[in-house]
Amino acid sequence: LIFTFTSLSCCAPICLQNQQSWNQLLTSEISELGAYNWIVVTESAYPAPGRPEAHLITSPHLLPKTLDSVLQTIESSGHIRPRIYLTREFSALRETNAPGIDEHREKLTKYLHERHTQSLSARSLESLLRSSKNGNRVLVVKSQTALPYTSIYIELESGYWDGVSETALRCEEP
After folding, report:
1. For the stretch 121-138, what's the b/e string if a residue is b when 16 or more beta carbons lie within 10 angstroms of its beta carbon?
2. Cβ contacts of residue 70 below 8 Å, gap of 6+?
3. How does pLDDT run across 70-90, given as a tens digit for each residue?
């Protein structure tokens, strides 16, 4: 009975963290994702996902280090590539309102390694997540960071086919 209750009580979140390192779990989860799926690397107060196609992993690291691990895993997979979104509110945060935000920004810049990012409001990003095609998976990777509006949204694209290739193919069709 206890085993059944434990198994059922954690259907949406991934509950194997005691059995595997979080990096192994991250690699396993990302290997199953494809184009049009999302990964959200979040601050610690981000709500647990409430839809069945969403999974949750908790990182033992702060958000910049967690993001670095996620991006390295995506890039080493070869089958997907990231489109990275920061919340617009993040750039408006000041040290007086969110102590530690300046150091966080500095570390985040380091771990982004000059990758291209886009900014949208947090509401717009959450709306994009909700409106993405039904059945698309969302992986939420919750970090130990406790700063507002620091979540990073990653829309996944094909790692071996891009918009330029798709346009060229469509232009060649009879």
Report:
1. ebeebeeebeebeeebbb
2. 26, 30, 39, 41, 141, 154
3. 999 999 998 999 999 999 999
Phi, psi of 66 (to 5 degrees): -65, -45
Geometric angle at alpha carbon 59, from 79 and 158, rounded to 5°: 15
Q: Is the pTM of this model over 0.70?
A: yes
Beta partners for residue 87, in sequence order:
120
Q: Are 12 and 138 in contact (CB under 8 A)?
A: no
28: helix, strand or coil:
helix
Q: Any bridge partners for residue 75, and if so which? A: none
What confidence tens digit (pLDDT) does each residue in 139-163 have?
999 999 999 999 999 999 998 887 7
